[in-house]
Amino acid sequence: MTGDRLFRTALDYWCRADYASGMQATYAIIGMVSARWGDDLRNNWLADRARTHYGHAVEWLERCLDFSAQSLVGEDTGEAKGVLGKIHIDLGDFDCE
């Protein structure tokens, strides 16, 4: 089972349990793991490959923040916002909202 599939399985379980904090945490964790993977690749001179993982991280962190806003659960949003901001700065993307 790949890592992405494991995260999706965890998300499915939290959805079935109707546990909003678990769903939010899963979105945040996927994004944070992808961001760290991107950092590791960048630090090893693989910037092109790092961009792919940063893009994946942005996608999942934005899902976390959107879900949090809709469900009114805010437990993981602070860290998710910080990681998302760091990614935008690292990529030189200053047109983000």
Distance between the termini: 35 Å
Number of structural units classed as domains: 1
> How confident is the prediction overall: mean pLDDT?
76
- The value of Rg in angstroms is 14 Å
Order of helices and strands: HHHH
Quaternary form: single chain
Largest sheet: none
From the spread of the alpha carbons, the general shape counts as globular
Helix content: over 70%
Number of helices: 4
Instruction: Identify low-pLDDT runs.
Output: none
Can you walk through the features of this model?
The protein has four helices and no strands. The protein has helices spanning 3-17, 20-43, 47-71, 77-91. It has 97 residues and is an all-alpha fold. Helix 2 runs antiparallel to helix 3, helix 2 packs parallel to helix 4 and helix 3 (47-71) packs antiparallel against helix 4. The chain has one domain.
Short description:
This protein has 97 residues and is mostly helical. It is 81% helix and 0% strand.
What topology emerges from the helices and strands here?
Blueprint: H1 3-17, H2 20-43, H3 47-71, H4 77-91
Helix pairs in contact: 1-2, 2-3, 2-4, 3-4
List keywords for this structure.
about 100 residues; mainly alpha; 4 helices; about 80% helix
